[in-house]
C-alpha cells in the first residue's frame, strides 16, 4: 500500500525535484526500506521509475512540440540537459535529437 502511494506521488509530481529523502518523508518509510519494498514490487527503484516516467513524457514532447532539448529537460525536472540526454540515450538507445528526427520522418 505504501509503495503504491509512492508510485502515485511520482506519477503526479515527476516534474518536480524529487529525492529519496522527499519520498521517505511523503511515505513515512525509512528510505532504505522504501527502495527495497518498491524495487521488490515494481522491479525497479523509485528513482529509476521516476527517470523512466520522465523519459516517456519527454518522448511525447519531442514528438509533438518544437521545444528545445534544454527546455524539455527543465520542464520534466532533470537537473541538466546533459543528464537528460544521457538518461534518454541509456533508456532508448538514441539521443533526444535523433529520436525527434526519427519521429518527424513518420
**Tally of helical segments:** 7
Oligomerization state:
single chain
**How much of the residues is beta strand, in percent?**
under 5%
Percent of residues in helices: over 70%
Major β-sheet annotation: none
C-alpha Rg (nearest Å): 15 Å
Output the structural class: mainly alpha
SSE pattern: HHHHHHH
Given as residue ranges, the uncertain stretches (5+ residues, pLDDT < 50) are none
Shape: elongated
Average pLDDT number: 95
Would you count the extended β strands for me? 0
Our measurement of the CA-to-CA distance between the termini, rounded to an integer number of angstroms, reads: 42 Å
Key features of this structure:
106 residues, mainly alpha, 7 helices, 75% helix
Explain what you see.
The protein has 106 residues and is mainly α. The protein is 75% helix and 0% strand. It is built from 7 helices and no strands. The protein has helices spanning 2-13, 20-27, 31-42, 46-64, 69-75, 81-92, 96-104.
Provide a quick synopsis of the model.
By secondary structure, the chain is mainly α. It is built from 7 helices and no strands.
Topology of helices and strands:
Layout: H1 2-13, H2 20-27, H3 31-42, H4 46-64, H5 69-75, H6 81-92, H7 96-104
Helix pairs in contact: 1-3, 1-4, 4-7, 5-6
Amino acid at each position: 500500500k505504501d509503495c503504491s502511494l509512492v508510485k502515485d506521488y511520482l506519477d503526479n509530481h515527476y516534474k518536480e525535484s524529487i529525492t529519496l529523502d522527499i519520498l521517505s518523508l511523503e511515505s513515512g518509510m525509512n528510505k532504505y526500506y522504501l527502495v527495497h519494498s518498491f524495487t521488490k514490487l515494481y522491479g525497479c527503484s523509485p528513482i529509476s521509475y521516476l527517470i523512466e516516467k520522465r523519459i516517456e513524457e519527454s518522448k511525447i514532447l519531442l514528438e509533438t512540440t518544437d521545444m528545445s532539448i534544454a527546455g524539455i529537460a527543465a520542464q520534466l525536472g532533470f537537473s541538466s540537459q546533459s543528464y537528460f540526454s544521457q538518461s534518454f540515450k541509456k533508456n532508448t538507445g538514441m539521443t533526444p535529437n535523433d529520436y525527434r528526427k526519427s519521429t518527424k520522418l513518420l
